[in-house]
Each structure stands twice: as C-alpha cells, then as structure tokens.
Known about the structure:
Layout: H1 2-24, H2 31-35, H3 44-50, H4 57-64, H5 82-97, H6 100-113, H7 120-133, H8 137-150, H9 157-172, H10 225-239, H11 246-259, H12 263-276, H13 283-296, H14 306-321, H15 328-355, H16 359-372, H17 379-388
Helix pairs in contact: 1-4, 5-6, 6-7, 7-8, 8-9, 8-10, 9-10, 10-11, 11-12, 12-13, 13-14, 14-15, 15-16, 16-17
TPR repeats: 121-154
Protein name: Outer membrane protein assembly factor BamD
Pfam family, one: TPR_6
Amino acid sequence: MRTSFFSAYALIGLALVLGSAGCQSTGGGSLLSLRNEKYDPERVEEVDRIRPVKSGMLNKIALAGGFLPDDKSPYMAAAAPPKAQAAFKEAVTIFEDGDLATAEKRFKHIASRYRDTTIEEDALFMLGETQFRRKRYPKAQDSFDELYERYPTTRYIDRVSDRMYAIAQYWLGSPKLIEPSDIQPVNFEKPATTPRPKVAAAGTHPSGPGYLPNLFDRTRPVIDTSGRALQALRSIWLNDPTGPKADEAIMLSADYHFRNANYVESDRFYQMLRDEYPKSPYLEDAFVLGSHVKLLSYQGPQYDGTSLEEAQKLKQTAVRLFPEAQAKPRLLDEIRKSEAQQASRQWEQVRFYQRKNNATAVAVSTHALLTDFPNSQYAPAARRIYTSLPASAKKNLKPLPGTPKRTSPPQLREVPDAEPYTPPAPPPARPGRASL
C-alpha cells in the first residue's frame, strides 16, 4: 500500500516536470521572447508550436499547479490565422500608399475581428497611427489608450508616448514649460492676487470657449479639450513611467493647473516629480515652482498656516540643493518674508487670547513668539505683555531667551525656633559584666 502511494506521487511529479519543460522549451525560444520581437508573419507556425494545447490530463495537472498561465494571459494569445496575416499586410500596403481612410477601416476591422490573437497589438497601433496621420486626434487617443490597456508592455510604448504628448501639446496650444524667471514675487498680504504666468504658446490655441461644444473641428474633442489633453498626459506617466516623456508630461500638467489658479493640484504634480524623478532635469524647477504655488495657496494670518510653513521648508531645501540657482536671491528674500508672516500669525494668536481674557494662553502665545521670533517687529510689545502677566500664568514656562540669570543667592526660608537639643541618657550596664 505504501509503495503504490509513493509511486503515485512520483508519477504526478514526473508529469508536472515534463509538462512545464515542454511548455517552456519548444521550438527554439519562449513565447515571451517572440512577443517582444519585431512582428514577423513568417513565424506564425513557430508560435503555434510553442502555444500549449489545453487538453488532456497532463495539461490539466500542470495548469492546476500554476505551471501554465490561463487563456487570458497576453503572452498566450492565439496565433493569427494566415487570412489575418494577409489582411494586415494588405492594410499596411494601403497605409504606405497614402490611402489613410481605407487603411483606418482595415486596421479597425482586423483589431476587432482577430481580438486576443498575436496580430491585435500591431493592428491597434497601426489604427492609432493612421488616425494620428489623418489628424483625428480624439480617435487616435482612444486607440492608443486601448493599446495601453490591452498590452501594458507593448513594444510600441515609446512611439505611443510621443504621439500622446504631441496630441496633448496641440490641444493645450503648445505652451512652453514655466520657468522660475516667469513667476512674479508673492504678495504676502493677499497671496491669491499675485499675477500668474501667462500662456506663451508657440502656436495658435485650437480650442474655443469651453462652454460651447465643438461640432466641426475633428482635430479636437466635442467638449472639454483641455481635460482630454490632461488625460493624454496622464496616460503617459501612468503607462510609461520610465520613458523619456514621463517627467515632462507631469511638468506640463502641473503648469496647466498653475496657470489656471488650481494651486493644490499643481502642487500635487510638482511634488510627484520631486518624489518620483530625482534625476529629472526639471527637478530644480519643481522645487522653486512648487514652493511658489504653496505660497499662493496661503490665505493670510487668520487662516491655516501649513502651506506657509511647507513653502518655507521647500525654499530652504532648494537653496541647499541648488546653491548656484538664479532664483536664489528671491528664495532668500521670500524665506525672510515667510518668517515675518509666521510671526504675524503668532501675534494674531496673542491678540485672540487677550480678547478671551485667558492669561495662561496669552502667556504661552507670547512666550512662543519671543522664543521663535525674538527679532520680529512684534517682539517688544509681546515682551511688555509677558512681563505684565501674573506669575501664576507663567509658572510652567521656561525662562525666555536673553533673560538675565539671577546672581544673588536665594533667600533662605525662616525656620521657627525649636526646643534645645538634649542627648539621650546612656543605657544601664548589664549585670555580671564589669563596666569599662
């Protein structure tokens, strides 16, 4: 009984080994390597031989053990039949001859008719490329997005990213990226009134008023041209994060929101570039512009000061990382102004607790102001207020910086007179022992 039990296990193990070996080393190469090579119709039969047959007990055992991928794996797509190969070659010839309208119909039919086959990836790319050449940019974007979705590791990814970036640039009016020299000094009294960079477009902006639908221009979407442009940029850095256009797509998205006064969203994209692309040539601009939009989202001393503090830290980091930056003098000046704004916020807190008649809170607020900003314009008034507070309100606070230390010895507490000390009597000697 025990011998037959171990024999069954040995047979199953042998079946698994033979099944996995047969699927991985047939025909001179793996299917994964073939799918990454240039498309070649002559190798269809070879792909057919590599693709495992989904039948028989051996294959079922190997599939249950995880040795074979399922039918939905993009690397196990069915080989395209010779009819599909001939149709694709004919469509490519029509494309090269310049009949783009007919070629678009052919590629669209092939991609739909032979879905989940090895020819679908090529047909989808050629469909988007044909639509791009015809300047049907919305349709081209949809085709490229479908290619991204169906084949995340497509071998056309670099060319698709270039096309998507060109489409987004056209829809946004071909704006140049914002540089630190394009921004204006921040108005710290009302940061939101600081002038924003204007669009310096290399060409004519193709989109009209955003509230009117586009019914005639096929190069643009029907509505929301800018939104579709941002969607194209998003597809680039999501599907090709290590490509040459990823960081530039993020910068273009951040600049768009910057110009449209969406400072929170712009700051999110600048931070994304700082965190994910530390070797990007746009890193310095991401620090300088990111600290600028954080300041623009600050609303004044009566509101939350998180953005003010974060902007100051970013500027200090930018000065340390890029000591030769052209924007360094302005960064240093804005750092000083940010400190003055923080002192103003602390002074507003002092006045608030004064109106509440809360002596302890006033003591804590003035102590914090004099500790953190001893040279601010509010320091003399804060020191006078702190000195006038009762000692009970300041009993748990440390001495202020610059407070002279007490040199005279402290007065000893008077102790009331006690009775004269009388030493106790010696104990009596024990009997039977001579006293010394």
